[in-house]
Amino acid sequence: MSDPLPHGPYQPAPGGPPPNRSRLLPHLLLGLVFVIAVVAVAALVTFRVLRDQEDPGTGGPTVLSRPVRFLAVEKSEPGPCKPGLLSDPSSAECLQVGSGMTIGRVADIRVRPPDAARGRTSHVVAISLIRQDAQTFATMTTKAAQAQPPANRIAIVAEGRVLSAPAVTSPITGGEIEITGSASQFTKEYTEGLVRRITGR
Q: φ and ψ at 133, to 5 degrees?
């Protein structure tokens, strides 16, 4: 009968040669590189997830996937709307619109909450125009402010629908626009969804 193994099947005998550290070092370095790569990929995935879940109203320069049009109102009449006329959801009127401008890129777009101090009871989509569009919009609003109703109104149209058609009382020269409506329509969910559809993000 053979003697039992005193050191177990995986233990070298006392006094045996020490482990070869030069052979272990490449394996350790390879393992370290693998761990770093896994951590980097995990961080990238987390960053992408956070960006996907980000509030669409955080703003910033944006190319719009669905351009927004600002069109001069020429006539208005009670509904139901005839072909060629656009329905204004805030007034239940039918609008005949003329020429205007189309914006496909903005300096900033974001959702802003109600502001009681400013008398704003609904959420709004706030848009900052780029310089060239701001100049065109200033010319357009100057003309509207001098016109008689309903030609003093500008219809804001996106996706073929009127979002709002406010009356212009004075020229808007700063390029800062707020798209708003009734508190029942312009909720947080509605305005955030609108920004998502317009910006495509």
A: -70, -35
